[in-house]
Design goal:
The protein is of the alpha+beta class and about 240 residues long. The strands form four sheets. It has a four-stranded mixed beta sheet with strand order 1-4-5-6. Helix 2 runs parallel beside helix 5. It is elongated.
Length: about 240
Amino acid sequence: VEDGSCPAITRDFGTEDLNARKYGGLTESEPHRRLKHLLMRSLGADPAFVDSAEERHWRASLLGLGTRRPDVSAVYGARRVAFEAQLSTTFLSVIVGRRAFYRAEGALLVWILASFDPLRRRMTEDDIVFPNNSNALVVDDETTAQSEALGRFRIRVWHPAPDANDDWRSDIVDFADLTLDVEGQRAFLVDVAGRTAALRAEVQAKAREALAEAQVKRAAREDDLRRDFLDYWSSPWESR
């Protein structure tokens, strides 16, 4: 309510004001520059990616959408891809706005992390990971070395393990192995949402089968009781 009990006054702050306070005037950190450098090296090793660039302005093809400046952009096959190197917290509205921009452009936004710990992840990482079909994409020294050695963009993917509640696993795979979903603005290795839906459908089907079986058994018991009752009342009085 900002009634004076707290010295912080933030009600009228926008994202630019909050970022200015958060970063103290610094425009970019060394870890962020390093992650962009690793990403550029990885893309440069793969001939499937062309026209890679850092911080290139992306002007929307539709009026009213403005411009963006992704950390790294490239062309992959016939698709333009924007990579955002995410190290710090960001606003959910910013994530949603960027996704909408690149979807309208027919391009794909891919969020890249420097590391990921499923047991110590932050809520702002969840804002990126879970809309990406619960797949966290990481570029680090190991993946970059593999990219340059193999000539293919390699990426580490963290995802929930199959049939496990809280266990996650990571795999280093080719970027080409990922499913690229422009409409959903997702790039993922494991279709966690599809797998979850299939498991839910299986559980619901088993529940329906169990209910139907229980109803059949109940109907059979009722028939038996009804038959016994009628047999009793239709029998001679002296035999009762």
